[in-house]
Design goal:
Arc Repressor Mutant, subunit A; 6% strand; single chain
Length: 157
């Protein structure tokens, strides 16, 4: 076996050949860059994502929220408790259905939407791609995520 043949054997586990690594590293860097603008709101990146869902759709169950933001109850429950402690959301269990948790914005949480308008502006340009490249990247990531969701659903059936 030549060195080239041996090298080829391991090409599938080289970091430079992985799609997952640049996705992971970019996501980590984006979250890091969001820290500064989100400090002004008193939110973490994940809390910001959750608040954007509420600002767009209004109140919903924890399960519905988890489906939209791709987080399980174990991650969402403490996050929602912190948002409630900050006075941004309320969590209520409907009478007769203790298994469901309904979350809605408080007036303070709704008002935070105005303050959040600065975040996209501060974040624009952090990914140095053209507008067209950003559009293509977003479309491809949305498609990949949708396909992964479908694979998960098929696995559960």
């Amino acid at each position: 076996m030549t060195n080239e043949t041996i090298s080829d054997k391991y090409s599938s586990i080289r970091l430079k050949n992985q799609l997952c690594f640049p996705l992971y590293a970019c996501a980590k860097e984006i979250v890091r860059l969001y820290r500064k603008p989100l400090e002004k709101l008193g939110l973490t990146y994940t809390q910001y994502v959750v608040m954007m869902v509420f600002w767009e759709y209004g109140g919903m169950t924890e399960k519905e929220l988890g489906g939209i933001v791709h987080l399980d109850s174990g991650t969402l429950a403490p996050l929602l408790k912190r948002l409630e402690k900050q006075g941004l959301v309320t969590r209520k269990r409907p009478e007769g259905n203790e298994n469901r948790l309904y979350i809605s914005l408080t007036e303070q949480g709704d008002k935070l939407k105005e303050e959040a308008l600065h975040v996209p502006e501060e974040m624009s340009g952090c990914i140095r791609l053209s507008g067209e490249e950003l559009f293509v990247l977003k479309k491809l990531l949305d498609k990949a995520l949708l396909n992964m969701d479908e694979n998960v659903k098929e696995t559960l059936l």
